[in-house]
Write a structure and sequence with these properties.
With 192 residues, the chain is mainly beta. Helix content is 5%, strand content 49%.
Length: 192
């Protein structure tokens, strides 16, 4: 992940995980421009070849958090998952275990994501109710459960095989944080 000046960041690597240096966040927003797939691709720990990116909420660690992912390939859709491994805290401990995809009470189909078109993805958690917006329109709504809400941690962003330019904001989605407030983690403990 590199800074491209001001508050904008870019990613051009198969796997990127970042978080905001803010102790806890119930909402996050990414203003992004999708630039296409990365030159090389990396499979997920499950072996799946997926092109996706999205937000993390309540990211206590690599084993306990909420994901709001925009899957681009193999099909375009929003997927909300809770990863829960209460006694484990690094990817070397939990690997790709503990994921539960959450069924929404309401969802709408995503349009095909075009290259070089700017968009905004916003996730807002109130109590255990999560609402996800794309470009200001409600696209997903459902309950994530009290266990996911009980886990506390910062917001962040994740990408798999996607090139992006983006700005990330947490708890104040209308004001993107400076690139100095974003932290990057790398290594096997942060791989999934």
């Amino acid at each position: 992940m590199t800074s491209s000046g001001g508050t904008s960041l870019s990613v051009d690597v198969p796997k990127m995980r970042a978080y905001v240096n803010h102790p806890a966040a119930d909402s996050a927003q990414i203003h992004f421009t999708y630039l296409g797939p990365t030159a090389s691709r990396s499979a997920l720990a499950s072996g799946a070849d997926r092109l996706q990116f999205g937000l993390k909420l309540h990211a206590q660690d690599a084993c306990n958090l909420i994901y709001v992912m925009w899957r681009v390939e193999p099909e375009s859709k929003l997927v909300v998952s809770v990863k829960s491994n209460p006694r484990q805290h690094s990817s070397s401990q939990c690997g790709n275990r503990g994921y539960q995809n959450i069924k929404p009470r309401m969802s709408a189909a995503l349009a095909h994501l075009g290259v070089r078109q700017p968009h905004t993805l916003t996730a807002v958690l109130r109590a255990d109710e999560l609402r996800v917006f794309v470009d200001g329109g409600l696209m997903w709504q459902g309950g994530v459960g009290s266990d996911a809400v009980a886990v506390k941690g910062p917001a962040g962003v994740r990408s798999d095989n996607a090139r992006l330019e983006f700005e990330l904001a947490a708890d104040n989605p209308d004001a993107a944080l400076s690139s100095q407030d974003a932290g990057c983690r790398s290594g096997p403990e942060e791989s999934e």
